[in-house]
Amino acid sequence: MSSxxxxxxxxxxxxxxxxxxxxxxFKRWLFTTNHKDIGSLYLIFSLTMFLIGGAMAMVIxxxxxxxxxxxxxxxxxxxxxxxxxxxxxxxxxxxxxxGLANWMxxxxxxxxxxxxxxxxxxxxxxxxxxxxxxxxxxxxxxxxPAFGWxxxxxxxxxxxxxxxxxxxxAVHIMGISSIMGAINVVVTIxxxxxxxxxxxxxxxxVWTWLITAxxxxxxMPVLAxxxxxxxxxxYFATSFFDAAGGGDPVxxxxxxxxxxxxxxxxxxxxxxxxxxxxxxxxxxxxxxGYASMVYATxxxxxxxxxxxxxxxxxxxxxxxxxxxxxxxxxxxxxxxGVKVFNWVATMWRGSISFxxxxxxxxxxxxxxxxxxFSGLMLAITPADFQYHDTYFVVAHFHYVxxxxxxxxxxxxxxxxxxxxxxxxxxxxxxxWHFWLSLVSxxxxxxPMHFVGLAxxxxxxxxxxxxxxxxxxxxxxxxxxFGLSQLLFxxxxxxxxxxxDKVPAKVWDGAEGLExxxxxxxPYHTFDTPPEIK
Amino acid sequence: MNxxxxxYYVPDQSPWPxxxxxAMFLIAVGAALTVMQASEEGGNxxxxxxxxxxxLLYMLFSWFKNVIEESHQGLYSAQMDRSFRQxxxxxxxxxxxxxxxxxxxxxxxxxxxxxxxxGAGNNAMTNEVLWPTFEAVWPLVTTPxxxxxxxxxxxxxxxxxxxxxxxxxxxxxxAHVAMENNKRGPLKxxxxxxxxxxxxxxxxxxEEYIHAYQDLGLTLDSGVYGNTFFLLTxxxxxxxxxxxxxxxxxxxRILKGHFSPKKHFAFQAAAWYWHFVDVVWLCLFVFVYVx
Lengths: 533, 291
Ligand code: HEM
Ligand SMILES: [Cu+2]
Description:
The complex is a heterodimer. Chain A is mostly helical. Helices cover 68% and strands 0% of the residues of chain A.
């Protein structure tokens, strides 16, 4: 798409040797203003949260391995489903994408750093504190939040435990972190592009992040409003979500999903960007339909504001609203379909090779599409009356989030790890990680479609006997998937420690500015902007 | 300016963000504990809260001090200035969306939940089964549960406050014009007047709250009308407070001779914030008081 002059390459290298080496010791990480340091911090934090949230999923699957209540108390089970969801959404997936943005956006647009480097540090460092508060509440008398990651009123107001305020303020901090991070990304992309990096030359990962950041700034404050109303309803006797005072519990769901649906796109648009970067590299072709990708991403983002009530078909909305939200939701499949088509068309007649990032990307395309299809089924209002709040919904969103968002993060991590560390990862181990994950993730989530269609409700620690076999299979898949992820940790650790040295351009089909700087990427890059031809 | 500095300035390591993160942690824990201990005697959460706020203020002061020094050393390019401006604009957009959540709650209550409780649409049975005597009116002076209150009229204090804020936006605009023409005298006068108007607004707002609580029986917990009234005006009042403090800081910086006709981002940002707070008030006045 674009290249820089050789002259500049020397320049970047020279600068690196010159000044500003990373500070020594712990201070480097606490005080850093460097986008690469902060990107690494985000990614390491995200991986840690992924493991903690994963451990909670293991508790859930262990309890559900057999019918009946055996391992944990139902109240604790509820805390596990709730905190698992919160951690995976706000602690694992979102910070991983922000970490990738921090690392890659400045490199891809030829900027010396993020636009507001100190605020960047602040956005990161408040996150661990937020999760410290959330996790600490689990150990307090009364326990942590137990009302689901969607914290519907009145579960989170009338029926929640006394520690709910900790949850509320933890979510506030997560929101502030996301908003500051997103502002940084938008400003960096709008203001810091190297001369000649015009909008339609922008790498797609940058485009998708620009739109994601816009969504974040638009909806995270609404989440803040929602938790604030929960706080006042619970502790200050307001009745936003209480019909006795003229409010409505359903109003909570409207406000929450006005945030919540754009939120799910916040977790998938950067994934689209990663896949759109990796597929052309290993197909050795240009991305098919670049412009249509940009327009599709934008329309998905805009449409995502008018579909929220597809999560609320069973709340007794007027029929006109049910129909509106059904059709609007189905409309989103069109731009989503455009994307899948473009990825497949990019591979069509390409000279494809199956390196690890490409394996994850292909798995993404197939399995994310599957999740899209179950989403379409859920979007059919009368059908959703049957599926709502069953394991079918759980299957749907785990296909789009685990084999979608998480697989794209893995793909991106394998794709850029050599650039970050200067070392190639252990390919054999990485392939083991991929194949084990691929098989186990389907053993884990595919049968959920069946038990869901048969009526097994979600978020319940016990179930009827006829679901026993499938649940045992699901749990086995779950443990296998969970264990497989430890392989990823090993691969990343070993890669950071050493390995075969890689050249600046790690993958021969790769394009973009990030491959013009040496591997590992020097601490400071593009002190003077490169020239884009 | 020195050629070197046309480069985008990337600051060195800074201790302030992590200090700010600790402050935020203390504020969150302190605020949560304060709320959780509200019904008990002898809670200690608020000490943590105050500690956090103190650290945050210290951090903001030091951070801004660094930024101002860097600016005075000529480290900031025009591109840096654009980063600040765009950052501030997006921050204000996020604030708009925060208020949207509460306006959304207001509209939903007025147009959907209260009428439905009164039996509108196909909800006759809702009314019949839950609270058959409930009548849907707005302002909701009698809740379904039977709590009563009185509505806040828009004449009097609210109208005066509207006029005050509108005038303050005009004086602030004049201050900006004076800044751009390098007329420091009028600048100080107009900015001072703006701050004064802000303080008066806040004073009258307190008066109005006292009136609501003592004379009208309109309180934070008097049904969804009181909820939306106090949360909307309350969050707005907090923003006016913040805006006044920001203007005050800018005022002191002007007294110290900071800013030039061409370079005055802090002033500009404060002004944008003030105008934003003003627009929110206009929406409030229309939707909370008048209609
Ligand atoms: C073709 C596109 C999609 C359609 C038509 C669609 C449709 C739906 C519908 C109708 C529901 C509500 C089901 C119910 O509760 O009864 C739902 C739930 C959900 N979807 Fe999607 N979806 C799509 C894509 C996505 C994507 C890309 C993500 C995230 C990356 C996602 C994440 C979720 C989540 C997390 C839930 C469940 C939330 C909860 O109740 O906990 N969906 N989807
Ligand atoms: Cu949705």
